UniProtKB/TrEMBL annotation, chain A:
Keyword Ribonucleoprotein among record annotations: yes
UniProt keywords, alphabetically: Ribonucleoprotein, Ribosomal protein
Gene3D superfamilies reported for this sequence: translation elongation factor selb, chain A, domain 4
Name listed for the protein in its UniProt record: Ribosomal protein L35A
Domain of life the protein comes from: Eukaryota
Any one GO cellular component localisation term in the record: ribosome
UniProtKB/TrEMBL annotation, chain B:
SUPFAM superfamilies per the UniProt record, alphabetical: Translation proteins SH3-like domain (SSF50104)
Listed Basic residues bias regions: 76-87
Species of origin: Suillus subaureus
Record keyword Ribosomal protein present: yes
Residue ranges occupied by any Large ribosomal subunit protein uL6 N-terminal domain in the UniProt entry: 6-31
Entry's family note: Belongs to the eukaryotic ribosomal protein eL6 family.
Region of interest called Disordered, as start-end residue ranges on this chain: 1-88
Identification of the protein by name: 60S ribosomal protein L6
Amino acid sequence: MGSTRLYAKGRVLGHKRAKRNTRPNTSLIQIEGVATKEDAQFYLGKRVAYVYKAKREVQGSKVRVIWGRVTRPHGNSGVVKSKFRSNLPPRAFGEGVRVMLYPSTV
Amino acid sequence: MARSRQLAPGVGRFSRSQAASRRGLYKGLKKSDKPAPAETPAFKEVTVGGDKNSGTRLVPTSKAPRFYPAEDVRQPKKSRKSPKPAKLRPTIVPGTVLILLAGRFRGKRVVFLKQLDSGLLLVTGPYKINGVPLRRVNQAYVIATSTKVDLGEFKVDTKINDAYFAKPATKSSSAEAEFFEEGKPKAKEAFPEAKSADQKEVDKAVITAVQKQENLAKYLKATFGLSKGQFPHQMVF
């Protein structure tokens, strides 16, 4: 069975922050294979899903999602800022995130 | 209208006289005459029943409101914007093979037929090839590939429009009936014959066009997925 992945893989690097103050409403995402801010332009506006599991079932599933969108590039090396419907919890730092391919402009 | 670009707050690209000249104000401002509103009489005659009442009575055409707010409320301005159907991407042309990114058929490659009035795209698998029926899809959830099927002069029947896909109005069952039905699977309605006939008719033309190209049927049958080392921003679709 071939691959059925329809999203780009990303990692949560942390909250948007200065040295001593953090702004948890925006998270930084590193998308696999993206190394320049020109490459990151492709992903702007794309929806992002932070998927995680929990013990309690909600609406018939133990899998939960926090949806968000890629908002803007961060720096010159392809990292990207994104905002989620509710802020990402700090335990998400270092975890994987799915950057969907929609809304598509190709 | 030639708008003067803003260079800094309060400083436009063109001076007041230059902007007026660009707008052609020397020709004078156009005055449009609104058509005179239809004359409605203030009172209308209404027949009244009962013996003791006179046969007719003069009643005001529009009643005065029952309540007035304590203070004058500010009315929001009426918007002059009207929603328009989404503009079709230049890469999407009838016969283009699209990749569906979300929904029940995500990952499937389908053939684009036409854009409907609502702006949604009408696509078909074809059904025999990959199980995708005549379906509407939003442009934002689709990747257009460079692969095209030559549909020639084929035009989809105009009866297949947005109203064709409307859900039939379901009779709302009372709470008691639902309570008794609980646990039993709901009887599924058989797929309407007319819709399968429409599907076959459209697919006939599409499949003959697909057969002309080598491996295209296999391509449409295969699903799309990203694998290791593939990055969407580097791919040419």
